[in-house]
Amino acid sequence: MAGTDSYFKLLFDLPVLSGTNMEVPIADPDDPAYRLFDLFVVNNVGAVIVVEDESPVGIVTERDIIGRVLKQERDVETTTVRMIMSSPLITIEADESIREAIDLLRTHDIRRLVVTEKGNLIGLTTERRLLNLAHTVYLERTRGVSAGSVDSGIEKPVIAYLSTYPPRECGIATFTQDLVDSITKQQSLSPPFIVAINDKGGYYDYPIEVKLQVERENRESFEAVATQVKDSGIKLVNIQHEYGLYGGSWGDHLISFMEEVDKPIVTTLHTILQDPSPEAKRVMDEILRLSDLVVVLARVGAKILEERYDTLSFKVRYIPHGCPNVPFIKSQTAKQGLGLEKRYVLSTFGLISRGKGIEYAIQSMPEIVEKKPEAIYLVIGETHPEVRKHEGESYRQSLSDLASELDIEDNVRFVNRFLSKSDLIRFLQATDTYILPYPNRDQISSGTMLYALCTGKAIVTTPFLHAEEVINEGAAVGCEFRDPESIARIVNTLIDSEKLKDQYERRAYEYTRDKIWPNVAMTYINEFYKTLGM
């Protein structure tokens, strides 16, 4: 009973500031509503605080966006934040107790409580956050563990991540940053420790979480960094693996790192070859041997590892590729402001390189344009930096030349830049049909597909390994490999049947609800703790 009394005393006496999230995005009441979409996506949050003259005056949640903007089909350019925010706000001063905060939450039947200091915004808290905080402090004190010990990593282990990392332009760099940011928001681990992989001659202005850098082509660099990690307080290493990220034969410089680091290793596999060359299989076999756990991004990956690489099933976990939590909106709403209001928009996005099959999508356009003259195909993204080093813009130029030869220059547009996440989401939301024309079946993971799914797009895709699972779930429709006629036929079917297109949009959106980044991050955290035996 004394323990229970101590628990409640802690619960009631702690200041609400100690359980406040201070990284809350803010908006001005006169901002257009579309800015809120950007804030939700970039910050991966469910609420934005509205601030005027340095004081909080309102709050907008995802539910507000859906109910007050999208369902009412209001113009996101002319509708202001002030028109849709909930006001007046219920607030609490930062030095008040958790007891008072929970009373306010329950009395007013609200989920979020704005925390202020002399009327100025400090942050946001919730009942769940406050209860978790009180429970954590209770456990610390009853176990005799100091808050300083927790902060130093005894209770919250330090995880190192070996990967490419922004500002380097690379799909796996973006994946890693999204994963790390989402894990950090869960507050279950110590701050992340990034070991960034540099390409030859590459120098980047990395953020503070990047603590070490390794040179891709230098085996000694991998060994030296591994020694530094081994001698540190790092508890576990998460490796993001793609053959091309690591130097040597089929990226075997990574093996030197894994052999030297002497820490538990969880490896996320972004590529699993079904028919590898002997050298590629040797490298993968070593990675599997040296990993305590391997993560696959599609269920079929586990089957390939078991059948082709003789990997024991207990060593493999399926954790889906994460995606942002994006409001479901119809394309017509998102087209406003992009100059696409009168167009039927098809799109493909990603770093451009040969092997993406974009030429097949362009070849399908004449037949699509014949049925829908206002159709436009957006090829979104710049040429992959590694491709640009070796062949410049020759592939993109060949795609542009192809559009000219087919006399469809007005129906193909290249958005030739590396988009911010919010800009990318906006282009995807403006898309009517998304095309994934990959020409090869071996693709085990596609972040671009998850982005299209999470924005609720009708997707036409070749049945590469990851897409095959999505097709079988009814969340996308399959077309043939290297077959422009097949792409055109299916796109035209969706154009003819708005009802069918709507069905695929809803299925796509629903398919991703358990794959948003917070859910994926928590699964990784659980697997890290299990691997550490905690």
Look at the structure and name the CATH superfamily of the largest domain. Glycogen Phosphorylase B
Q: Into how many domains do the coordinates divide?
A: 3
Instruction: Give the strand tally.
Output: 19
From the spread of the alpha carbons, the general shape counts as globular
CATH class of the largest domain: Alpha Beta
Major beta sheet, strand line-up: 9-8-7-10-11-12-13
CATH architecture name of the largest domain: 3-Layer(aba) Sandwich
What is the share of helical residues?
40-55%
Sketch the major β-sheet.
7 strands, parallel
Describe this structure in words.
The protein has 534 residues and is of the alpha/beta class. It folds into 3 domains: 2-148, CBS-domain (Roll); 156-322 and 516-531, Rossmann fold (3-Layer(aba) Sandwich), CATH 3.40.50; 331-514, Glycogen Phosphorylase B (Rossmann fold, 3-Layer(aba) Sandwich). It contains 22 helices and 19 strands. The strands form 4 sheets. Strands 9-8-7-10-11-12-13 form a 7-stranded parallel beta sheet, sandwiched between helices. A 6-stranded parallel beta sheet has the order 16-15-14-17-18-19, with helices on both faces. A 3-stranded mixed beta sheet has the order 1-2-3. Strand 10, helix 10 and strand 11 (265-269) form a beta-alpha-beta unit. The longest helix has 17 residues, at 127-143. The protein starts with a helix and ends with a helix. The model is unreliable at 143-154 (pLDDT under 50).
